[in-house]
Amino acid sequence: MSDRSRRRFLHTVATAALAMHAPLSFAETPPLRRAIPRDGRTVPAVGLGTWQAFDYADDPAADRDALATLRLVAAAGGVIDSSPMYGRSEAVAGRLLRKADPARAAFVATKVWTRGKAAGRAQIDESMRLLGRDPIDLMQVHNLVDLDTHLATLADLKTAGRVRYVGITHYTASAHADLVRAIERGGLDFVQVNYSLRERDAARTVFPAARANGVAVLVNRPFAEGDVFRATKGKPLPDFAREIGAASWAQYALKFILGEPAVTCAIPGTRNPKHCADNLGTASGPPPDAALRRRMAEHFDTL
């Protein structure tokens, strides 16, 4: 991040935090960034998912929140992830990104989720149109649907300069072995996988394969579809949360994830700017080491 970009980021997030009465800790320093192994480009370690939160129509209040949220993420050049599977999310995100990110600083990712070469290519083109990104930063094969067909298309588009990075995704532990096999075949830049305090299987399977093959990791379901919050509702943070600068259970959960060296970026879904500010605050300060992560997990398991 250049000095000019750093100043712009700090100004944007500090202004937003004050307006929302959100914690300012995340606005005091630039966010933790992680390198994409394929070429060394860095992205903030916390980004944004759009599933459900951006799937709406004709809602000015939702637009105001979503626009403020996108501005927070784009100010840091953060990852914004979507999919044709997410209803109107691509269209909403693309429409608002034209206002929220005129400098096109955000790292925009989406997916192909259909069968057949022609249908896949048409869907990819439509996603680029809706999101207003051609080339697009990352195109992923969603849930491994028609994997070989789409990977061949994406390889061609990457060679042509229309796709910068190619990836695959899934959201269940039952698919982790398939993700590992695809990673080990080579040619991938990213893998997106579920991982959280509640769902830790990827650390034993997908993460080692990603590290060994130079593949970046996006983490979906960082709160296990709200299960983390259901387990912690009404319960105080442990005293040792101060050691990692966690001011909320969301930050506690995300800090646990970022303590895993294989993780490039976690993408919690929200359109609530206050929640987004809290999530982004997780990337302020160093992540927990292995010993503290074990303590965090053990404490969560007692709740």
CATH class: Alpha Beta
Measured between the Cα atoms of the first and last residue, the distance is 39 Å
What's the alpha carbon Rg, rounded to whole Å? 18 Å
Structural class: alpha/beta
CATH architecture: Alpha-Beta Barrel
Number of domains: 1
Number of helices: 11
Report strand order across the widest sheet.
3-4-5-6-7-8-9-10
What does this structure look like?
The protein has 303 residues and is an alpha/beta fold. It has one domain (3-301): Alpha-Beta Barrel (TIM Barrel), CATH 3.20.20. 42% of the residues lie in helices and 14% in strands. It contains eleven helices and ten strands. The protein has helices at residues 3-20, 60-75, 89-100, 117-131, 147-159, 176-185, 206-212, 227-232, 249-258, 273-281, 290-301, and strands at 33-35, 42-44, 48-49, 79-81, 107-112, 136-141, 163-169, 190-194, 216-220, 265-266. The strands form two sheets. An eight-stranded parallel sheet has the order 3-4-5-6-7-8-9-10. A two-stranded antiparallel sheet has the order 1-2. Strand 6, helix 5 and strand 7 form a beta-alpha-beta unit. Helix 2 (60-75) packs across helix 3 and helix 3 packs parallel to helix 4. 49% of the residues are buried. The model is unreliable at 17-26 (pLDDT under 50).
